[in-house]
């Protein structure tokens, strides 16, 4: 395959989970604690290790656990409080993963503030008291998350999952956060003729691919706007891109971890992932540090 792809870091299977964390996400912890929004997400074909990279097994935790450890260690020095929310985007519907479905006060819904930022209404916000408490809630939420076995992955995520951390002034609501950190485990793109899915699984695959195509269109549009001076970006085409608005071209520092496989029969999908990551790396976010107000 001709062509070259340039990235900030490249990790092969000789690198540890700690190496990946330190080389991709660790530096953004101080930014978040200092009042800057941060987005961290893994992107790639189904079965390439996105969930392993973000979550990992308890014996060898991924980016999320290591990031939470550093964030919780730094929160006391900020004089602020930390809250968290955990949702999945399943067939373009947002669902709260911190509670059983039907126990909330209405359907979760992304809503845009006057300043252009987006938050999710009608979801549970929990006060973070320890890394263990958050991880226990995330583990319980993961069991509520939609998964399915198919020909390409024994445990395939059928939804996008987003852990949202909110740094909040004491006495304020999480929706008034000084800064937010989104840690995102995207569902993997897949060719349905290879995964062998039918019925409901086919509907899930179509929804996953559609939302990832929307993400790709957002990236391409942002790049076109940078050269043409345009302003419209199709964030509202999917719940995924709407929720990730800040992280893709908005007010956030963003780390994208592109996951690919060496398998020859996945060359096309791997190249698509590399092209997306290259394009996304050229998007210029509009990062602002939010100052706390009395």
UniProtKB/TrEMBL annotation:
It comes from the Eukaryota. One of its GO terms (cellular component) is cytoplasm. SUPFAM superfamilies: P-loop containing nucleoside triphosphate hydrolases. GO terms for biological process: microtubule-based movement; mitotic spindle organization; spindle elongation. Its main location: cytoplasm. One of its GO terms (molecular function) is microtubule binding. Pfam families: Kinesin. PROSITE patterns: KINESIN_MOTOR_1, KINESIN_MOTOR_2. Gene3D superfamilies: Kinesin motor domain. Keywords: ATP-binding, Coiled coil, Cytoplasm, Microtubule, Motor protein, Nucleotide-binding. ATP binds at residues 44-51. Residues 1-283 form the Kinesin motor domain. InterPro entries: Kinesin-like_fam, Kinesin_motor_CS, Kinesin_motor_dom, Kinesin_motor_dom_sf, P-loop_NTPase. It is found in: Cytoplasm. The keyword Acyltransferase does not apply. PANTHER family: CHROMOSOME-ASSOCIATED KINESIN KIF4A-RELATED. Belongs to the TRAFAC class myosin-kinesin ATPase superfamily. Kinesin family. This is Kinesin-like protein. It comes from Alexandrium catenella.
